[in-house]
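call fold(seq) -> tokens
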Amino acid sequence: MDVTVPRFWLEIDKPHRLLVLHCQGFVASEVYREGLLEAVQVTRKEYLRNWVMDTKHMKVIRQVDQQWTMQSWFSQFKLLGVRRLGIVVSDDIFNQMAISGMVATLRPDFSGEVEYFQGYNSALFWAREGEGDFSDLGLFSV
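ret:
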């Protein structure tokens, strides 16, 4: 039995105004681009302000897709007003180099915060800070 595993999918956490992008394995150009464009549309429609990009298990991003991200996609992304972008670092060194290179190039034109994380839960916690209700985390106040 052949089970198809999604390579790129989105999750929305409305109470925390958060979009999570999950990327796994080698993502084909059309899937990568459609996914990023869909993420922009969903963010705009749902008024989301925080993102987590879970690239922990993603492989290298093609050079042509890196160029597309910087030249075409980023102009749309920066208009969204995203305040926090948490990136879960890939285990793949080539993916790490691609993402850090793109972020370094784009960071001067991005007004939000960008942080890198080794773990998914740490990135979620950081992205959720200051947004929504944290009662489900077991925190208390006096």
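Confidence is low (pLDDT under 50) at residues 133-142.
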